[in-house]
Amino acid sequence: MWQDNNAYGASSSQNAYYSQPAQGAPLQFYSPSTSDGSSFYPGSRPSLEGSMGAQGTVPQAPSGPGFGGNIQVQGPWWTAFGTGGFEGEPPLLEELGINFSHIRAKSMTVLNPLSSVDDRIMDDADLAGPIMFFFCYGLFLLFSGKPNFGFIYGVGLFGSVSIYTLLNLMSEQGIDAYRVASVLGYCLLPMVGVGGVSVMVALDDMFGYLLALVSIIWCTYSASGIFVAVLRMSDQRLLVAYPVGLLYGCFALLSVFSGSSNGGK
Known about the structure:
Blueprint: H1 2-19, H2 92-95, H3 100-111, H4 128-143, H5 149-170, H6 177-186, H7 189-200, H8 206-231, H9 237-256
Helix pairs in contact: 4-6, 4-7, 5-6, 5-9, 7-8, 7-9, 8-9
Protein backbone atom coordinates (compact mmCIF):
# COMPACT_ATOMS: atom_id res chain seq x y z
CA MET A 1 0.00 0.00 0.00
CA TRP A 2 2.78 2.28 0.88
CA GLN A 3 4.47 1.44 -2.41
CA ASP A 4 1.32 2.16 -4.35
CA ASN A 5 0.99 5.50 -2.64
CA ASN A 6 4.61 6.29 -3.39
CA ALA A 7 4.21 5.27 -7.02
CA TYR A 8 1.05 7.29 -7.31
CA GLY A 9 2.74 10.24 -5.66
CA ALA A 10 5.75 9.92 -7.94
CA SER A 11 3.61 9.76 -11.02
CA SER A 12 1.57 12.67 -9.79
CA SER A 13 4.69 14.68 -9.09
CA GLN A 14 6.10 13.79 -12.50
CA ASN A 15 2.89 14.79 -14.20
CA ALA A 16 2.90 17.98 -12.20
CA TYR A 17 6.52 18.55 -13.18
CA TYR A 18 5.85 18.14 -16.87
CA SER A 19 2.62 20.05 -16.76
CA GLN A 20 4.02 23.06 -14.95
CA PRO A 21 6.37 25.35 -16.87
CA ALA A 22 9.89 25.87 -15.60
CA GLN A 23 10.67 28.85 -13.47
CA GLY A 24 11.93 31.73 -15.52
CA ALA A 25 11.44 31.92 -19.29
CA PRO A 26 8.48 29.83 -20.52
CA LEU A 27 9.08 26.97 -22.89
CA GLN A 28 9.03 28.20 -26.49
CA PHE A 29 9.25 26.41 -29.79
CA TYR A 30 11.41 27.58 -32.72
CA SER A 31 9.51 29.34 -35.43
CA PRO A 32 11.22 29.97 -38.77
CA SER A 33 9.24 33.12 -39.42
CA THR A 34 9.70 36.41 -37.66
CA SER A 35 7.02 38.45 -36.02
CA ASP A 36 6.55 40.70 -39.04
CA GLY A 37 5.62 37.78 -41.24
CA SER A 38 8.77 37.87 -43.32
CA SER A 39 11.03 34.90 -43.80
CA PHE A 40 13.85 34.12 -41.40
CA TYR A 41 16.47 34.18 -44.19
CA PRO A 42 16.35 37.34 -46.28
CA GLY A 43 15.27 36.69 -49.83
CA SER A 44 14.16 33.09 -49.16
CA ARG A 45 10.86 31.72 -50.29
CA PRO A 46 8.07 31.81 -47.63
CA SER A 47 6.74 28.52 -46.30
CA LEU A 48 3.52 27.38 -47.94
CA GLU A 49 2.34 25.42 -44.90
CA GLY A 50 2.81 28.31 -42.51
CA SER A 51 1.17 30.85 -44.81
CA MET A 52 -2.10 29.01 -45.52
CA GLY A 53 -5.10 31.17 -44.84
CA ALA A 54 -8.23 30.26 -42.97
CA GLN A 55 -10.05 29.32 -46.19
CA GLY A 56 -7.14 27.11 -47.35
CA THR A 57 -5.89 29.52 -49.98
CA VAL A 58 -2.29 30.58 -50.41
CA PRO A 59 -1.85 34.35 -50.14
CA GLN A 60 0.18 36.22 -52.71
CA ALA A 61 3.85 36.87 -52.03
CA PRO A 62 4.55 40.32 -50.61
CA SER A 63 5.84 42.89 -53.04
CA GLY A 64 8.67 44.05 -50.81
CA PRO A 65 12.31 44.67 -51.67
CA GLY A 66 14.24 41.59 -52.69
CA PHE A 67 16.83 40.32 -55.07
CA GLY A 68 16.36 41.71 -58.56
CA GLY A 69 18.23 42.15 -61.79
CA ASN A 70 17.91 42.42 -65.51
CA ILE A 71 17.37 39.14 -67.27
CA GLN A 72 19.32 39.28 -70.51
CA VAL A 73 17.35 38.01 -73.46
CA GLN A 74 19.16 35.52 -75.62
CA GLY A 75 20.30 37.14 -78.83
CA PRO A 76 22.52 36.31 -81.81
CA TRP A 77 25.84 34.53 -81.39
CA TRP A 78 27.88 37.70 -81.60
CA THR A 79 26.32 39.00 -78.36
CA ALA A 80 28.63 36.59 -76.52
CA PHE A 81 31.51 38.95 -77.32
CA GLY A 82 29.77 41.97 -75.83
CA THR A 83 28.97 43.05 -72.29
CA GLY A 84 25.50 44.46 -72.80
CA GLY A 85 23.15 43.94 -69.89
CA PHE A 86 25.90 43.62 -67.28
CA GLU A 87 26.04 46.89 -65.41
CA GLY A 88 29.55 48.03 -64.50
CA GLU A 89 31.24 45.36 -66.64
CA PRO A 90 34.19 46.78 -68.69
CA PRO A 91 34.35 46.06 -72.42
CA LEU A 92 36.02 42.88 -73.57
CA LEU A 93 38.78 44.69 -75.49
CA GLU A 94 39.63 46.73 -72.42
CA GLU A 95 39.99 43.56 -70.34
CA LEU A 96 42.34 42.17 -73.01
CA GLY A 97 44.47 45.34 -72.93
CA ILE A 98 43.48 46.51 -76.44
CA ASN A 99 42.65 50.20 -76.77
CA PHE A 100 42.37 51.35 -80.36
CA SER A 101 42.40 55.04 -79.47
CA HIS A 102 45.77 54.64 -77.71
CA ILE A 103 47.12 52.58 -80.60
CA ARG A 104 46.08 55.30 -83.05
CA ALA A 105 47.64 58.06 -80.91
CA LYS A 106 50.98 56.26 -80.63
CA SER A 107 50.97 55.39 -84.33
CA MET A 108 50.40 59.03 -85.23
CA THR A 109 53.31 60.00 -82.99
CA VAL A 110 55.56 57.63 -84.92
CA LEU A 111 54.28 58.78 -88.31
CA ASN A 112 54.89 62.43 -87.35
CA PRO A 113 58.36 62.34 -85.78
CA LEU A 114 58.81 66.13 -85.99
CA SER A 115 56.04 66.73 -83.46
CA SER A 116 56.77 67.08 -79.76
CA VAL A 117 56.63 63.80 -77.86
CA ASP A 118 54.74 63.65 -74.58
CA ASP A 119 56.94 62.27 -71.81
CA ARG A 120 53.96 60.26 -70.46
CA ILE A 121 53.09 58.61 -73.75
CA MET A 122 54.26 55.20 -72.55
CA ASP A 123 52.45 55.25 -69.22
CA ASP A 124 49.88 52.99 -70.86
CA ALA A 125 52.27 50.67 -72.67
CA ASP A 126 50.78 47.78 -74.61
CA LEU A 127 51.90 45.07 -77.03
CA ALA A 128 48.69 44.82 -79.06
CA GLY A 129 49.87 47.36 -81.64
CA PRO A 130 53.46 46.04 -81.90
CA ILE A 131 52.30 42.44 -82.36
CA MET A 132 49.92 43.58 -85.09
CA PHE A 133 52.70 45.55 -86.84
CA PHE A 134 55.13 42.63 -86.62
CA PHE A 135 52.52 40.29 -88.05
CA CYS A 136 51.71 42.66 -90.94
CA TYR A 137 55.41 43.12 -91.67
CA GLY A 138 56.00 39.36 -91.80
CA LEU A 139 52.88 38.90 -93.92
CA PHE A 140 54.07 41.47 -96.47
CA LEU A 141 57.45 39.78 -96.69
CA LEU A 142 55.70 36.45 -97.17
CA PHE A 143 53.69 37.85 -100.08
CA SER A 144 56.91 39.15 -101.64
CA GLY A 145 58.48 35.66 -101.49
CA LYS A 146 60.48 36.14 -98.27
CA PRO A 147 59.10 33.88 -95.51
CA ASN A 148 61.14 35.36 -92.67
CA PHE A 149 58.81 35.10 -89.67
CA GLY A 150 61.44 33.34 -87.60
CA PHE A 151 64.08 35.98 -88.36
CA ILE A 152 61.64 38.81 -87.62
CA TYR A 153 60.68 37.57 -84.17
CA GLY A 154 64.23 36.46 -83.40
CA VAL A 155 65.75 39.83 -84.29
CA GLY A 156 62.95 41.62 -82.47
CA LEU A 157 63.46 39.61 -79.28
CA PHE A 158 67.26 39.93 -79.31
CA GLY A 159 67.08 43.63 -80.13
CA SER A 160 64.55 44.35 -77.37
CA VAL A 161 66.71 42.64 -74.76
CA SER A 162 69.82 44.48 -75.97
CA ILE A 163 68.17 47.91 -76.03
CA TYR A 164 66.63 47.25 -72.61
CA THR A 165 70.06 46.49 -71.16
CA LEU A 166 71.71 49.53 -72.73
CA LEU A 167 68.99 51.97 -71.65
CA ASN A 168 69.10 50.81 -68.05
CA LEU A 169 72.88 51.20 -68.03
CA MET A 170 72.72 54.68 -69.53
CA SER A 171 69.81 56.21 -67.63
CA GLU A 172 69.33 56.87 -63.94
CA GLN A 173 65.54 56.48 -64.05
CA GLY A 174 65.47 53.08 -65.75
CA ILE A 175 62.78 51.46 -67.90
CA ASP A 176 61.14 48.05 -67.95
CA ALA A 177 61.38 45.56 -70.80
CA TYR A 178 57.64 45.78 -71.54
CA ARG A 179 57.86 49.46 -72.48
CA VAL A 180 61.04 48.93 -74.49
CA ALA A 181 59.34 46.26 -76.60
CA SER A 182 56.28 48.48 -76.99
CA VAL A 183 58.30 51.47 -78.26
CA LEU A 184 60.38 49.39 -80.66
CA GLY A 185 57.26 47.68 -82.00
CA TYR A 186 55.37 50.91 -82.62
CA CYS A 187 58.36 52.54 -84.30
CA LEU A 188 58.53 49.61 -86.75
CA LEU A 189 55.53 51.13 -88.56
CA PRO A 190 57.58 52.85 -91.34
CA MET A 191 59.34 49.54 -91.97
CA VAL A 192 55.94 47.91 -92.40
CA GLY A 193 55.34 50.35 -95.25
CA VAL A 194 58.60 49.23 -96.86
CA GLY A 195 57.40 45.64 -96.58
CA GLY A 196 54.19 46.62 -98.33
CA VAL A 197 56.15 48.26 -101.16
CA SER A 198 58.26 45.10 -101.53
CA VAL A 199 55.11 43.17 -102.45
CA MET A 200 54.62 45.31 -105.58
CA VAL A 201 58.22 46.06 -106.66
CA ALA A 202 61.62 44.51 -106.05
CA LEU A 203 63.79 46.49 -103.66
CA ASP A 204 67.14 44.99 -104.62
CA ASP A 205 68.15 48.12 -106.54
CA MET A 206 69.01 51.75 -105.91
CA PHE A 207 65.40 52.70 -105.23
CA GLY A 208 65.11 49.95 -102.65
CA TYR A 209 68.35 50.97 -100.96
CA LEU A 210 67.24 54.61 -100.68
CA LEU A 211 63.80 53.59 -99.42
CA ALA A 212 65.33 51.27 -96.81
CA LEU A 213 67.74 54.02 -95.68
CA VAL A 214 64.89 56.51 -95.27
CA SER A 215 62.85 54.01 -93.29
CA ILE A 216 65.81 53.24 -91.00
CA ILE A 217 66.31 56.95 -90.26
CA TRP A 218 62.57 57.41 -89.72
CA CYS A 219 62.24 54.48 -87.30
CA THR A 220 65.41 55.42 -85.45
CA TYR A 221 64.42 59.06 -85.06
CA SER A 222 60.97 58.15 -83.72
CA ALA A 223 62.20 55.49 -81.29
CA SER A 224 65.08 57.57 -79.95
CA GLY A 225 62.76 60.55 -79.49
CA ILE A 226 60.31 58.50 -77.42
CA PHE A 227 63.07 56.92 -75.33
CA VAL A 228 64.67 60.31 -74.67
CA ALA A 229 61.32 61.87 -73.72
CA VAL A 230 60.36 59.04 -71.38
CA LEU A 231 63.77 58.72 -69.69
CA ARG A 232 64.56 62.47 -69.76
CA MET A 233 68.02 62.04 -71.27
CA SER A 234 68.01 64.54 -74.14
CA ASP A 235 71.78 64.96 -74.05
CA GLN A 236 72.31 61.29 -74.91
CA ARG A 237 70.03 60.98 -77.93
CA LEU A 238 72.81 60.06 -80.37
CA LEU A 239 74.01 57.32 -78.04
CA VAL A 240 70.47 55.94 -77.90
CA ALA A 241 69.93 56.28 -81.64
CA TYR A 242 73.03 54.30 -82.63
CA PRO A 243 72.00 50.82 -81.31
CA VAL A 244 68.38 51.46 -82.27
CA GLY A 245 69.47 52.24 -85.85
CA LEU A 246 71.42 48.98 -86.01
CA LEU A 247 68.32 47.07 -84.97
CA TYR A 248 66.12 48.63 -87.64
CA GLY A 249 68.94 48.13 -90.17
CA CYS A 250 68.53 44.37 -89.65
CA PHE A 251 64.83 44.65 -90.44
CA ALA A 252 65.66 46.67 -93.57
CA LEU A 253 68.01 43.94 -94.75
CA LEU A 254 65.18 41.43 -94.44
CA SER A 255 63.01 43.69 -96.59
CA VAL A 256 65.55 44.37 -99.34
CA PHE A 257 67.25 41.02 -99.81
CA SER A 258 65.41 37.78 -100.35
CA GLY A 259 67.96 35.50 -98.69
CA SER A 260 67.62 32.77 -101.34
CA SER A 261 70.76 31.79 -103.17
CA ASN A 262 70.62 31.43 -106.98
CA GLY A 263 74.33 31.19 -107.57
CA GLY A 264 74.30 27.58 -108.83
CA LYS A 265 71.47 28.07 -111.33
